[in-house]
UniProtKB/TrEMBL annotation:
InterPro entries: Calcineurin-like_PHP, Metallo-depent_PP-like, Metallophosphoesterase_sf
Start and end residues of each Calcineurin-like phosphoesterase domain: 130-289
One Gene Ontology term from the biological process aspect of the record: lipid A biosynthetic process
Entry keyword set: Hydrolase, Metal-binding
One GO MF term attached to the UniProt entry: metal ion binding
Ranges in coiled-coil conformation: none
PANTHER family: PHOSPHODIESTERASE YAEI (PTHR31302:SF31), TRANSMEMBRANE PROTEIN WITH METALLOPHOSPHOESTERASE DOMAIN-RELATED (PTHR31302)
Descriptive protein name: Ser/Thr protein phosphatase
Key word Protease present: no
Source organism per UniProt: Methylocaldum marinum
Lineage of the organism: Bacteria, Pseudomonadati, Pseudomonadota, Gammaproteobacteria, Methylococcales
One Gene Ontology cellular component: membrane
Domain of life, per lineage: Bacteria
């Protein structure tokens, strides 16, 4: 069993003695600067107390082994967000088509969308309860992306809680502090209680940093939301798409069977699992709505192992209602075509 390191020491992950130094030592020609920095003992201990040693070691180990892999790993085989050599080609093609500048402007014009969930059994005290949903922020992809999000947030003020469904970082590997610093810029413009989950671009090392900013991260956990004598439940799972670190069983442990419950999942790929776990609502992102779409709009790629109908906007599966946001940010290139970015206000209605 791996001991918790003494205070002040950093723990390389996974521990070299756990799998043999020859197996985990950097290979000739590797780029160690692309790795996340080693986790410090304080952060390790804090996360261990939250999620347990097994989950933490698995998450950190998978990050170490697979965080930038293009093929394999996760619920889909191909991960274009990790294929960095193609990003310049996409930009070049857009410039040739005279679409690059327009696409960059589109990516910085964030829409405020509205959605209603009509729920049987919703306590009357929660009728009209509103959640601000932000996802796929990718805050460090460009210096002006946080400013675009702040501009959108300044156009709204009527919501009860804010939920963030992952992908705070632009890249899927390497340093994460620029994303944390950008989140620190945005944080004063978010009101009320804020809850979040991690996405496939996020290292679990980021969770304590966000909690230091007053964002409660749900790592296969749930919390009770109360109004008067009434209660509903909000659950969140760790990234189900790439790291497959979700644990619905643990997330639902504290939720009564007949309670109204909402699930935060970075990817809509969990729709079937969420429905049979008796969730009423699932909020997701990940797909960006395609980000670059043909007129229609017709997405060229959604990068999710889920029906297309579940990959953008409102959807329903049996008794589960869901919403997959197109996201406020951009990935791969800072461009959007025929697919505007969004933040979404979800209002709960009792029927």
């Amino acid at each position: 069993m791996q001991p918790t390191p003494p205070p002040g020491q950093r723990l390389p992950f996974p521990p070299l003695h756990a799998a043999g130094e020859a197996q985990l030592a950097p290979k000739p020609g590797s780029l160690p600067h692309l790795r996340c920095p080693p986790i410090d003992s304080e952060t390790y201990g804090r996360l261990e107390r939250r999620v347990g040693r097994c989950h933490l070691n698995q998450r950190l180990g998978i990050e170490h082994d697979f965080e930038a892999r293009v093929f394999g790993q996760g619920r889909t085989f191909f991960h274009i967000e990790n294929w960095y050599s193609v990003h310049g080609l996409i930009r070049h093609i857009l410039r040739l088509l005279w679409l690059h500048n327009r696409g960059r402007e589109n990516a910085r014009t964030i829409e405020v969308r509205h959605n209603e969930f009509k729920l049987e059994g919703l306590p009357r005290e929660f009728d009209g309860f509103t959640l601000l949903h932000i996802t796929d922020l990718h805050l460090d992809i460009s210096e002006d992306i946080p400013t675009a999000l702040i501009d959108a947030l300044n156009r709204i003020d009527d919501y009860d809680i804010c939920v963030l469904t992952g992908d705070f970082r632009a890249k899927t590997f390497g340093p994460y502090q620029p994303a944390v610093a950008a989140m620190q810029m945005v944080r004063p413009f978010l009101k009320g209680q804020i809850y979040g989950v991690l996405g496939n671009h996020d290292t679990i090392r980021m969770a304590p940093e966000f909690e230091n900013l007053g964002i409660q991260m749900l790592l296969n956990e749930s919390i009770a939301l109360t109004r008067g004598d009434a209660t509903i439940h909000l659950a969140g799972i760790d990234d189900p798409h790439y790291y497959r670190a979700d644990n619905l069983e643990k997330a639902t442990d504290q939720i009564p069977e007949d309670a109204v419950s909402i699930l935060l999942s970075h990817s809509p790929e969990m729709y079937r699992h969420a429905a049979y776990a008796n969730f009423d609502v699932m909020l997701s992102g990940h797909t960006h709505g395609g980000q670059i779409c043909l007129p229609g709009p017709i997405p060229l790629m959604l990068n999710a192992n889920a029906p297309r109908a579940f990959c953008n906007g409102y959807w329903r599966y049996h008794s589960l209602q869901g919403y997959t946001s197109a996201g406020s940010g951009v990935s791969i290139v800072d461009v959007r075509l025929n697919c505007p970015p969004e933040i979404t206000l979800h209002r709960l209605r009792s029927i």
